[in-house]
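User: Could you check the structure of this?
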Amino acid sequence: MTFIQKNPGCYLRQIRNELSLSMGSVQYHAYQLQKSGKITSTREGLYKLHFQSGAYQDHEKLLFRVLNQETPREIIMFIIEQKYPTQTDIVKRLGISAPSVNWHVRRLIDLNLIDEVREGKYKRYKLCDDSIDSRYIVELLKTHHPNLWNKWSNRLVEIFLSLSDENN
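Assistant: Sure, the predicted structure tokens are below.
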């Protein structure tokens, strides 16, 4: 239960790996916690994500689902970092193909997490104004994904240092 509280949106294999338990044991305890109403779960493709009961609203669960996936998380964090990047900017930063970026961006748009803004021949991306706030995402990362937060904050420090070197 404590692991699920600290890692909302976790899935069984993640629990097994982090706690070094057998899959049968993890499945049994997850079932018992869900049966007793202490946790809830939602299905995301092949994964069943687990949350503490009553702790999160649907839009928060959606954010945890996305933040638990590396590529969509990187796209959202890059949008926060760069403000209105183009698809080409995202492709260069993530080092994956344009069709892959396009697929992930379409999913994020369909989930109402990001918006597409046309600027001449370019499409730029931004967080949806009414659904999420960049400060809220940063707070979720700091609280529930400290390793990711440390990686991202180190990246921001590198950006600021490179900007200060360019100005000198």
